[in-house]
Design goal:
heterotetramer, A alpha/beta, B alpha/beta, C mainly alpha, D alpha/beta, B: Rossmann fold, FAD/NAD(P)-binding domain, 5 domains, 5-stranded parallel beta sheet, elongated, D: alpha/beta, 5-stranded mixed beta sheet, 13 helices, globular
């Protein structure tokens, strides 16, 4: 990566297979643009997101991590996103408590029909991360790219 | 390390227009483990698939990465392709470079760069994939229907009709449920008994159907295709095989002061009883709470008069174990208790009745022989006030938040029947909204107003005060902007309906989910309305939500169709992406079990080798792969990381993270 | 104004399903120009001045029958009370604005009087 | 107190109630009483110690002890009883093999508060008689009480077979005051604060080894498959990661016994991380005390449909 190039954040989006991944597909089908630095990882359900994955992403150089799942009450597995909601709330709170920018983490509920919401969310999140600049507080120096 | 083949699809110009597919294939070819990398116009075409299959053989591929459209589109196609070429279908990973790349980006360089990264993530994942095989589990070709009302009967008849054995478990001494207590049915006004009792007889005579009356489900184990159920047959103190249903005992029993539950306590019956003339099975039952013989050991009249020798005072509850492939819940509803609504004076005056009680008062087989008489003095009522939405559509603290759905129609029916039989009565119906969305429903309601002259008043009754043999009703007429004061002879309350009390413990046994109102939840509100999210559990009738008879029967048959579909299979193919605990690391702490929505996790005490030739007994989790749906909730709840999900393992997901962040 | 009534009363009139049980329960029905359910409806629709100027708002006994009976916990009596309070608060509605002051000033007038008047009339 | 405990221990051994006693014995220094198992009257006579430095929480040792066959009696202080019950709830301790003797506790002392050159300490009523290199001095017990005991959450022994001393009640405390102070800081200040603390971590694993909630059969940090296997922190990320993951693993299970901070050789206030999670759980999902009972569902394996959204972290106070 050229040194002088503008900061291109790396954003990892974990999407549940049933709602949000389909919502992401729909925003593709509708040709709704969002930044290329958002990369999606498919997981079966939002409750599959282990907090360790979030840390891992930050360690390996992610500047923002977002979790997308079915709207509460619509989980394909009935209750998964309720557990994810609690777990992520507490994880984000702990990261915030450690002084890590709370804006780097987010949870958004995106249904399979909300392609537009998916794209809008990613645009907004990407802009937020862009403003924050590179993740420095929770990075592993050995994985630093620049 | 796998030998990976990478196949980049152009999707015509869908991908190739914005992604430099050749470059992607070229760059990915340099990834570790990639032994072959190519691109092609349409991977999903016959030619494309053949190319994949040939490459698997030629390069001895153990993993395949396809950079193409969304896996939701063609993952299964490519899995089958590879399976035909002898590769395990779960050794295929898709990199979504169409919906999530070429279609959302315009700049070719950016899109190409992203496609490469998505490809890398898929390659990283496929290196950690393991061949998975779907297990199968046999299906027990027998169904259980819990609840013998119209829903349960219809479901059982339809399943039996398809040639499968069905058991009905009914907690009352007879099947038939609420419909047996109803007089006429809307919107056709045919008599409920005339259409129900033949079905009850059909069920009893069908050799595929076995009825466990006066019985309850006491435990459920197992999973879809293999439920093990214990049924408790409550002691009725009458040998069902001997009793002829002659009814002599029910006439001779000296204990005459037992409130008749069938008539909702409006009259009395004996301690030994047959609920009603058309009961199925037509067998007497002794009410142990009232029987003098059972309470004090003195009496024995029924035993003496019974010529069949069917009375058995020593009978005990019996437990029957049976195996089923599918379970249908048809536990139905009850009207709510009205203690909370004392403004309507329900507990103060016998002339304030619920709609179900009113059914009995109108019924030819009811306590008044079908003549409408006031319970207090046996006189004909001349002014009757109907109050709708009693306890329905309330704030949570004041009653049920939902609409009970059936009240508008049965109240119209009641009002109409009153006016038809007794044209001299004044009938008022106080409503908030009249809801009649059903075939011929609104026409029915309009007939009540236009032809029968029922006074429909938009408003609500504020209070009812019994005074000098009359019921002083104070109500609002919102359209007339006045307050009405009516001297009524009877007040009929359309009480909200709620799920039967037995439903909640049953749901726990079945690990089937319920909403906050104790209605069973369906697997999908639109697309899977008769299935519970728990595999093998189906829903029939009002246990799933308020329903009228036509809707109940429709759902009952729909549930039967689903059960037949399941029982027709000899084996169920299980989802291979299931959770798997590492017993060596499992703490046995039960965290995973608590979050499992399917009850797939159980625990066993197992011996492990400890240091110095000792053995250690440890509690460890076990996952039933036939039940697990692979959501992964347990994997994250597990504190020690002993639980992992096949196909989406911790390592696989982390490898994807690493590849993306690289 | 709607917000004021909502804030004073703590009532969300949108919860009302227009069943009229409040009005059916009201012992002061005859004396009131507008009835409990109308209060809720009119607050929702912003017709508050009509309510404030209506006859009989003081005839509400605050017996809370409507609150007790309301199936949706809307609490009409609190809305009526809030309207009464609104009436009380607007009394002496002669407002004093800062640009009116210069004209009113004269040398004799103590500074304190201006401050006091301002305090009293600015509400 | 020590004599009463010794008597009870001897009695339980002699009448055959149990065949082992879990208690404390003297450690290397006067202030580091060490958990120990006693099997004979003689051992008890000789080595059993209980005093104001018996802070060690014995509940964790019962995971192993309760599985060894035979029956073990353990002396459990109020805060240990929460840990004990939490472990029972997680099916870690075999209850049938444990005889719990509840011991009321007035708070343990912190040797660091006694000053330098301390040789030995004797209890005398409300005072401690401290023998130092520079002569004897008297210190009020209350002045030497450990911080975690000064903000004691409860004197209630939530589970026991027998009590020594009186049953206590949950106490009013301001244990979240420190958390609130940190919350009020700017993220930059908080980051600096924690960097300052966590960068001292030498990964000795004392916190992990002493923590009753950290009792996995195999720790994720020792497990190659977990993806976070890590023995020593190579840089700031790994210093943070260890403590974040550890705190998160015990979230909803930590009883706030404070052992982690007590044993930390670098004096890192690790309990603050756990307390932050407890405070959040209390505020967001309703009061919850791990180990207080056997039935309440742990907050992370429970939910309500109306739970707050994770964005609450962005919305609420702080800066």
């Amino acid at each position: 990566m050229p040194v002088n190039e503008e900061f291109k954040p790396t954003i990892v989006a974990f999407c549940c297979n049933w709602c949000s991944y389909a919502g992401a597909d729909l925003s593709g089908t509708n040709r709704l643009q969002y930044p290329a630095n958002v990369k999606i990882i498919r997981i079966p359900c939002s409750c599959r997101l282990n907090p360790m994955f979030v840390l891992r992403a930050f360690q390996r150089g992610a500047d923002g991590v977002i979790l997308c799942g079915c709207h509460p009450g619509d989980c394909h597995y009935t209750t998964g996103n309720y557990y994810a909601r609690r777990r992520m709330t507490l994880l984000f709170s702990m990261l915030d408590f450690l002084g890590i920018e709370r804006e780097r983490t987010r949870v958004e509920w995106v249904s399979a029909a909300e392609g537009a919401k998916f794209a809008a969310t990613m645009n907004d999140f990407s802009a937020t991360i862009h403003k924050l600049g590179p993740n420095r507080r929770l990075e592993d120096l050995r994985c630093r790219k620049d | 390390m796998q030998r990976v083949g990478v196949f980049v699809c152009w999707c015509g110009s869908n991908i190739a227009a914005t992604v430099d597919v050749e470059k992607v294939a070229e760059v990915l070819a340099k990834e570790p483990g990639v032994v072959f990398s190519t691109n092609y116009q349409y991977m999903c075409s016959q030619a494309g698939q053949e190319m994949i299959q040939e490459s698997i053989a030629k390069y001895n591929l153990t993993g395949v990465v396809i950079c193409s459209c969304s896996p939701r589109m063609h993952e299964n196609t490519f899995r089958k392709t590879c399976e035909k070429a002898g590769l395990n279908p779960y050794m295929v990973e898709i990199a979504n470079i169409r919906e999530q790349c070429s279609w959302i980006h315009k700049d070719k360089e950016t899109a190409t760069e992203k496609a490469v990264i998505l490809g890398r993530a898929a390659i990283a994942k496929v290196h950690l994939n393991a061949p998975l095989t779907s297990g199968t589990s046999p299906v027990k070709k027998r169904a259980l229907v819990i609840g013998g009302g119209i829903a349960g009967i219809q479901t059982a008849l339809d399943i039996a009709d398809a040639g499968f054995d069905v058991d009905i478990v009914e907690k009352e001494p007879t099947i038939g449920g609420k419909m047996t207590q109803i007089d006429k049915t809307f919107p056709t006004l045919d008599c409920a008994a005339c259409i129900l009792t033949p079905k009850m007889v059909d069920a009893a005579q069908n050799e595929k159907i076995h009825i466990y009356s006066y019985s309850e489900v006491s435990s459920v184990k197992g999973f879809v295709g293999n439920f093990k159920v214990t049924i408790k047959k409550k002691a009725r103190y009458v040998d069902e095989t001997k009793c002829t249903g002659c009814g002599l005992c029910t006439e001779k029993c000296p204990q005459k002061k037992v409130p008749n539950a069938f008539n909702l306590g409006l009259d009395n019956r004996r301690a030994i009883y047959i609920p009603f003339a058309q009961a199925v099975p037509k067998v007497a039952t002794i009410d142990a709470d009232y029987c003098t013989m059972l309470k004090s050991g003195k009496c024995g009249v029924c035993s003496k008069v019974c010529t069949a020798g069917a009375i058995d005072y020593t009978q005990k509850d019996a437990f029957i174990e049976q195996e089923y492939g599918a379970i249908v819940v048809a536990t139905g509803f009850n009207p709510i208790k009205l203690d909370q609504y004392d403004e309507f004076a329900y507990s103060q005056s016998p002339d304030v009745v619920t709609s179900l009680e009113f059914e009995r008062l109108m019924n030819a087989a009811g306590p008044t022989g079908g003549t409408l008489l006031r319970p207090s003095d046996g006189q004909h009522p001349h002014t009757i006030v109907f109050v709708q939405c009693v306890g329905s559509r309330c704030d949570d603290s004041k009653g049920k938040p939902y609409c009970s759905k059936i009240c508008c129609m049965y109240t119209a029916k009641h009002a109409m029947l009153c006016r038809e039989k007794y044209p001299d009565t004044d009938v008022y119906v106080f409503y908030i909204d009249v809801r009649t969305p059903g075939k011929n429903f609104d026409e029915f309601y309009r007939r009540a107003v236009e032809e029968y002259g029922v006074h429909y008043v938009k408003g609500m009754v504020g209070k009812v005060v019994p005074e000098n043999g009359k019921l002083k009703v104070q109500a609002s007429d919102l359209i007339g902007n006045q307050q009405l004061h009516i001297d009524a002879d009877m007040v009929v309350l359309a009480a909200a309906i709620e799920p039967d009390k037995s439903a909640r413990p049953l749901a726990t046994m079945l690990t089937a989910s319920m909403d906050t109102n104790d209605f069973f939840t369906e697997a999908h509100p639109k697309l899977r309305p008769v299935e519970s999210p728990t595999a093998g559990i189906f829903l029939s009738g009002a246990c799933q939500g308020p329903k009228d008879i036509p809707e109940t029967v429709a759902q009952a048959s729909a549930a039967a169709a689903k059960v037949i579909g399941l029982l027709n299979k000899d084996h169920l193919v299980c989802n291979p992406c299931t959770a798997q605990p590492d017993e060596l690391m499992c703490n046995g702490c039960s965290s995973c079990e608590k979050v499992c929505p399917y009850g797939a996790i159980t625990y066993v005490d197992k011996e492990f080798r400890g240091p110095n030739r000792t053995t250690l007994l440890r509690r460890v989790a076990q996952v039933n792969p036939a039940v697990c749906q692979g959501c992964g909730a347990c994997t994250v709840a597990c504190p020690s990381g002993a639980m992992d999900l096949k196909g989406f393992s911790n390592k696989q997901i982390m490898a994807e993270v690493d590849a993306i962040c690289r | 104004m709607i917000d004021t009534i909502k804030r004073i009363s703590g009532v969300n009139p949108r919860k009302c399903m227009k069943c009229g049980k409040c009005t059916a329960s009201c012992p002061a029905f005859e004396r009131m120009q507008f009835h409990p359910h109308q209060f809720v409806d009119m607050v929702e629709n912003g017709r508050i001045h009509e309510l404030m100027n209506s006859e009989g708002i003081d005839f509400c006994l605050s017996c809370f029958a409507c609150v007790e009976r309301c199936p949706r916990n809307v609490e009409p009596a609190k809305v009526i009370e809030a309207v009464r309070l609104a009436v009380v608060r607007q009394q002496g509605g002669a407002h004093l604005t800062p640009d009116e002051i210069p004209a009113l000033l004269d040398d004799e007038l103590p500074q304190q009087a201006i401050t006091a008047a301002f305090r009293k009339y600015r509400k | 107190m020590q004599e009463r405990l010794k008597q009870k221990a001897t009695q339980l051994l002699e009448n055959g109630t149990v065949d082992r006693i879990l208690g404390w014995k003297a450690g290397e220094f006067f202030y580091d009483l060490t958990p120990a198992v006693f099997t004979t009257k003689e051992q008890i006579e000789k080595d059993f110690v209980f005093n104001v430095f018996a802070g060690a929480n014995l509940s964790k040792y019962l995971i192993a002890e309760s599985r060894k066959g035979g029956k073990v009696a353990a002396f459990i202080k109020p805060c240990d009883s929460y840990s004990f019950q939490q472990l029972l709830k997680e099916h870690r301790i075999w209850r049938d093999n444990v005889y719990v003797v509840g011991v009321q506790c007035d708070g343990m002392c912190d040797a660091a508060k006694l000053g330098d050159g301390v040789l030995s300490v004797k209890e005398e009523g409300e005072n401690l008689i401290v023998d130092t290199l520079y002569g004897e001095k008297t210190v009020l017990k209350a002045d030497a009480i450990a911080d975690r005991c000064a903000s004691c959450k409860s004197k209630k022994i939530v589970i026991f077979d027998e009590l020594i001393g009186e049953q206590g009640e949950e106490t009013e405390n301001d244990r979240f005051g420190e958390i609130a102070r940190l919350e009020a800081m700017s993220p930059e200040e908080r980051f600096e604060f924690w960097r300052g603390e966590l960068s001292r971590c030498i990964r000795c694993n004392a916190c992990r080894n002493v923590c009753p909630a950290c009792s996995c059969e195999k720790c994720v940090f020792d497990n190659a498959n977990s993806g976070v296997r890590n023995k020593a922190a190579a840089d700031s990320f790994e210093e943070n990661m260890f403590h974040i993951i550890r705190a998160f693993h015990v979230t909803g299970r930590c009883t706030d016994c404070g052992e982690c901070s007590r044993v930390c050789p670098q004096n890192i206030p690790l309990h603050l991380l756990n307390r932050k999670m407890i405070k959040d759980i209390n505020e967001l999902y309703g009061p919850y005390q791990a180990g207080a009972d056997m039935d309440t569902k742990p907050p992370l394996t429970n939910f309500t449909v109306d739970d707050c959204e994770p964005s609450i972290v962005h919305e609420r106070g702080g800066q």
